[in-house]
Design a protein that fits this description.
Layout (H helix, E strand, L loop, with lengths): L4 H9 E3 L7 E4 L3 E5 H13 L9 E5 L9 H17 L2 E3 L6 H9 L5 E4 L13 E4 L2 H8 L4 E4 L2 E8 L8 H12 L7 E6 L8 H10 L7 E3 L4 H9 L19 E6 L6 E3 L7 E3 L10 E4 L7 H11 L9 E4 L4 H10 L1 H8 L2 E2 L19 E4 L15 E4 L2 H10 L27 E2 L29 E8 L6 H4 L13 H4 L11 H8 L2 E5 L11 H8 L2 E6 L4 H9 L3 E5 L13 E4 L2 H6 L4 E6 L4 E6 L4 H8 L3 H11 L1
Parallel strand pairs: 3-4, 3-6, 4-5, 6-7, 9-10, 9-12, 10-11, 15-16, 15-18, 16-17, 18-19, 21-22, 22-23, 23-24
Antiparallel strand pairs: 1-2, 2-8, 5-20, 13-14, 21-25, 24-27, 25-26, 26-27
This protein binds alpha-methylisocitric acid and iron/sulfur cluster.
Length: 645
């Protein structure tokens, strides 16, 4: 039977289960990626597994998120990450080398391989036909130990690209169009596979913009075929040996279809405060802009920055605009420095930041209060920029450059002739910020700074939950809402007791006192709970505060898996209208949970004791996930398996 590309790769890596949509499968993971903000916990958990070395063919640890060193904390984490990488056989990409997804694309990607990363934008490498999946750090730790990664067999959404883009229409506009149609939850449970004639009109950097931001639809991954254009990219990277041709079989089928006619696309923009809030640029043209930030793993490639430089060359940005540029990698920065594009950016008035996530994760460059910031990034959740009431818009580098020049949201088509950027035939390739692990690591001492605290231990799920609804939330709550990032909170990522103080800080500052007074409780939420980042802290910190269950209308994939991994049971309302009958402060009672889980009884009676109402909740968990919850989390479960087996 002809297979699509996604199923070809899954089939090649299938170890447990069968490829039947919705059924749980266990796949072999060839490679892993971690970044510093999720990496410290990942390696602490890997250490807890008690193994000598990683068992993957390649694992790389990047430092790109917490690079502002305002005190000892981030620097301590960097040292821990470097020494723990050397100890266990992991490559280490030093701070300054670039954003994990960009560096991975350039230096480590390989068509047909599987990559599990402790970051939700791991699918970026789908731009070269590699299957990248974002997961919680514990899942990545288990994969580094040779364990399988489990997921429900995804549905494959085939997106046919037809036609050719008009000038000034960017790859970003392609993914914004897909997001507009799918919304931030339309991709849940799916892998988006691109095919069709239009694919030929996109280079690898552009494809990677599209696969990167596919994460915002909730999709498990996004992927392009590996063709002659991919080959050119590997040639540019002097890694031709890593290239293989890979495409869907002729006549294959997809579970769902979508067609995007590139001819019809216009410049688009996502409005505050959701990447799914996509409009045509004409709808907001003229809005004054005070900050323009170009960078992030979505749009900071060589192609992007050369395009921006060509637009700004010989001009000066608007007096009211602050323009920042964070190049995606050292390779990009070095290349634009050598070819003169950097000088054009500086001359036009850009503030050049280091090659890192930077403003995308609120590590500096927070806008002024109520300020309008236009960014080439992938997320604009409220408060993520570091300023609670800032208005953050997301658009292409072309729109960003045009708006920086005019001081207002500007349709770049107004700028006249489109500067056609030809990628260079040859660039310098220099991996001197990537540290290879030593063959003999017996002398390596893992250095742990005072900010690295031991992992908290979970208490097993009780048989009876009788707890207060400590917070009632709406739809699409992101992990940024659950546990914010930013320069102040991010350094606490390896200190769970300290970071827990910030749970729901931006949306309800009174939550923390309430939950502490009650010594735990349950969370009630609407649809797509936990969208966005993969940070497992959004599960561990609530666990640490005594949250035993979340009851939601539906969940985002990675966060649901993280809840299970840390022994919090993600329950769903059977009748969504019951959501309206439960208030914050109500006491909810659920009896015999352990017994029912063990007996595979999926629908449970819950009693709203305060309102004297009965409502039904269910769990949508695989038998393996049930065992994990009953064991008190994945770490306990894996340790038990290792002991028995
Ligand atoms: C993000 O873009 O939200 C992050 C920061 O890269 C996260 C990971 C994290 O919270 O550390 C992600 O996308 O998974
Ligand atoms: Fe870094 Fe932003 Fe990409 Fe997350 S989305 S990996 S914070 S650049």
């Amino acid at each position: 039977m002809p297979l699509n590309l996604t199923y070809k790769i899954l089939k090649n890596h299938l170890v447990e289960g069968s490829l039947v949509k919705g059924e749980e499968i266990g796949i072999r993971i060839d490679r892993t990626l971690t970044q510093d903000a999720t990496g410290t916990l990942t390696y602490l958990q890997f250490e807890a597994l008690g193994l000598d070395k990683v068992k993957t063919e390649l694992s790389v640890s990047y430092v790109d998120h917490n690079t502002l060193q305002t005190d000892h904390m981030n620097a301590d984490d960097h040292k821990y990450l470097q020494t723990v990488a050397a100890k266990y056989g992991v490559y280490f990409s030093k701070p300054g080398n670039g954003i994990c997804h960009q560096v991975n694309l350039e230096r480590f990607s390989k068509p047909g391989k599987t990559l599990l990363g402790s970051d939700s934008h791991t699918p970026t490498c789908g731009g070269v036909g590699m299957l990248g999946i974002g997961a919680g750090g514990l899942d990545v730790a288990v994969a580094m130990g040779g364990g399988l990664f489990y997921l429900n067999t995804p549905a494959v959404l085939g997106v046919e690209l037809v036609g050719e883009r008009k000038p000034w229409v960017s790859a970003k506009d392609v993914i914004l169009e897909v997001l507009k149609r799918l919304t931030v939850k339309g991709g849940v449970g799916k892998i988006i596979e691109y095919y069709g004639e239009g694919v030929k009109n996109l280079d690898v950097y552009e494809r990677a913009t599209i696969t990167n931001m596919g994460a915002e639809t909730g999709a498990t991954s996004s992927i392009f075929p590996s063709d002659e254009i991919t080959r050119d990219f590997f040639k540019l990277q002097r890694r031709l040996g890593d290239w293989v041709k890979l495409e869907a079989d002729q006549g294959c089928e997809y579970d769902e279809y979508m067609t995007v006619n590139l001819n019809e696309l216009e410049p688009m923009i996502a409005l505050p405060h959701s990447p799914g809030n996509v409009k045509k640029i004409s709808e907001v043209e003229g809005t004054p802009v005070e900050q323009v930030a170009i960078g992030s793993c979505t749009n900071s490639s060589l192609k992007d920055l050369m395009t921006v430089a060509a637009i700004l060359k010989g001009k000066t940005i608007h007096p009211d605009v602050s323009l920042t540029i964070s190049p995606g990698s050292k390779q990009v920065l070095e290349e634009i420095a050598r070819n003169g594009a950097l000088a054009d950016l500086i001359a036009a008035g850009a503030r050049i930041l280091e090659s890192a996530c930077g403003p995308c994760i609120g590590m500096g460059q927070a806008p002024r209060s109520g300020g309008v910031s236009l960014r080439t990034f992938n997320r604009n959740f409220k408060g993520r920029s570091g300023t609670e009431d800032a208005q953050v818009f997301l658009a292409s580098p072309e729109v960003a450059a045009a708006s920086a020049l005019h001081g207002e949201i500007t349709d770049p088509r107004k700028l006249g002739a489109y500067p056609i950027i030809k990628l260079p035939e040859r660039i310098r390739v220099n991996d001197n910020l990537i540290v290879k692990p030593p063959v003999d690591s017996s002398k390596i001492r893992v250095v742990r700074g005072p900010n690295i605290k031991p992992l908290p231990v979970n208490t097993p799920l009780p048989d009876r939950i009788n707890m207060e609804v400590v917070i009632k939330l709406g739809d699409n709550i992101s992990t940024d809402d659950i546990l914010p990032a930013g320069a102040k909170i991010l350094p606490l990522r390896s200190n769970i007791p300290a970071i827990s103080e910030y749970v729901f800080k931006n949306i309800d500052p009174t939550f923390i006192d309430r939950v502490k007074k009650k010594k735990g409780g349950l969370i009630l939420a609407g649809e797509n709970y936990g969208q966005g980042s993969s940070r497992e802290h959004a599960a561990i910190a609530p666990m640490y505060l005594g949250i035993k269950t979340v009851i939601a209308k539906s969940y985002a994939r990675i966060h649901k898996a993280n809840l299970v991994n840390f022994g919090i049971i993600p329950l769903q309302l059977v009748n969504q209208s019951d959501y309206n009958k439960i208030e914050q402060g109500d006491i909810v009672n659920i009896e015999n949970i352990r017994e029912k889980l063990a007996g595979s009884i999926q629908i449970l009676d819950a009693v709203n004791v305060s309102k004297k109402l009965i409502f039904k909740v269910k769990y949508d968990l695989t038998p393996r996930q049930v065992k994990i919850i009953l064991s008190g989390g994945l770490l306990n479960y894996v340790k038990k398996l290792n002991k028995n087996g």
